[in-house]
Amino acid sequence: MMRDSFVEVEFSDVYIELSKPALHQFIKKMMSQHYSLFWRYDAKTIYLMIELEDSVHELPFIRNTEFLTLSADSLHIYDDLLASALEKLLQHEKGNGIVKRSTEGPLYITSYQSGDIESMIEIDGSEKVMMNRNGSMIQYKDDGKSLEPRTIYNMMNLEIDYVLMELHEALLDSDEWLINSHKKKLKRLISRREQVEQLL
User: Fold this and answer.
1) Residue-range domain boundaries for the chain
2) What superkingdom heads the lineage (predicted)?
């Protein structure tokens, strides 16, 4: 079974209420793929530790009587199988969250609301194209009307994060040209975000 050489999937603002059966399904599935799983408890949170070879991921759960709630501001997953399993949980258990998937090529950002894909953006550095839940492509730079201002605002925050990350790399490389181009892009994005903010 091949593991991808480079996988990084970031789940942010994740909130999934898992019934016990759903959680057991998930655990069975991971164990059948040779992961070892165990629980770690602290005062408020239960962590499901998922180990494979040299990597350990921990998923934070809040304890409730009927179900456990997977709740995290940000989870970085460096394992394709685990990332896909988590994304399926988001869909099946009607969770909320934003999934950023970096590939060798573009970056994909999918936003889930109650298990439905609310928006999907592909950032390949040049054109930003996104799909909304009925699958039609929106280039939201020209066509902001068909999207909720709140969605556009959230997407712009993600874009700004992404450019900040690129700027940080350019600063580390002392690449003057890139530093300036990222700074210009940030200025533009921030002023656009301010315009969107007026609509909220």
Assistant:
1) 8-143, 148-200
2) Bacteria
